[in-house]
Amino acid sequence: MKILLGNVILFSMSLLIPILLPLTLHAKAPDKTELPGQASREKPRLLVLKTKVTGVGNTKTVDPVALTNLVGSVISNTGKYRLVSSEDMVAMLDQEQQKQLAGCDDVSCMAEIGAAMGARFLIYSNVGKVGGAYLATVSLIDTKDGSVSNRQSITVQNEKRILAGMEVAAKRLVGLKAELPPLEQAGKPANLAPWKWSALAGGLLMAALGGAGTGLAVSNRNKADDADKQSDMDDYRAKGETWNKVAITGYAVGGALLATSVVLFVLDSMKGTKGKREPGKVDEKKAMLLVSPMPGLGFSLNLVMDF
Description:
single chain, alpha/beta, 2 domains, 6-stranded mixed beta sheet, two-stranded antiparallel sheet
C-alpha cells in the first residue's frame, strides 16, 4: 500500500509540472520588460526662458529674474513637468549656443534651442508697454514642431501690477482659474454732507449776526443824534461803533463760510456724477457767490448755482 501511494503521488506531480511551469515563467516575464505605458508617465522636460521686459521704465519694480522665477514656480506647482531653469540652460550651453540664444526672438529658433537641450516644451514670457498700459504674456511652445501650444495674455494698468498680471497669465496657461486682485483704493471719498451744511448754516448765522449788528449800530447812532446830554451822545456813539465792528465781522466770517459751503456743494455734486459724463462732454456746472452792497453798512450775499 505504501509503495502504491507513493507511485500515485509521483504520477500526479508529473502531470502538474507541465501545467504549472509555463504559468510561473509567464508571471515573472513582466519583471524583465518595461511596463506598458511607463514611458508615457514620465514627466516631459520643460525649459523656462528668462522673461523679456521692454518699455518698462522702473526696472527695480519689474525684475526679469523675479518674473521668470514666478512663472517657473507656477508651472512647477502643477507637477506636470520637469523644469529646466534658464540658469541651468546657460550652464549646459557652450558660448556659441549662448550667443545664438541671445539673438533668438522667434518661436522656431527657441524651439530649436529647447529641442537641442532635450526639452519637449519651453515657456517664453514677456512684458511690453502698450499705450499707457502693460501687456504680460506667457507662451507654451512645443519644441517637437515649433508650434505655440498655448498662450495667455493679460493687461495691467501700472508697473506695480505687472507681477500680479504675470502670475495670473501663468496660472491660466496651466488651466488654473485666476483673476487680478482689485486695485488698492487710496481711501473712500470724504463725506462732505455734514461739512457743507455746517458751513452754510454757520454762514447764514454769521450773516444774520452782521445784519443785527448793523441794525443796532444804526439805532445807537440815531439815539446819539437825539440825545440831549453830551455824555449820552458819546455813550450811544461808542455803542454804535462797537456794533458796527460786530456787523463787519459777522459779514466777513459769514461770507467766508457761505463761499466755503458753495465749494463743498459743488464738490459733493461732482463726486456723485464722476465717471458718468459722456466722453468729450464738458461739465457745465457753475456756482457763483455774488456780493452786492446795500444802503448803509450792509451788503447782500447771493448764491447762484447752475446745474
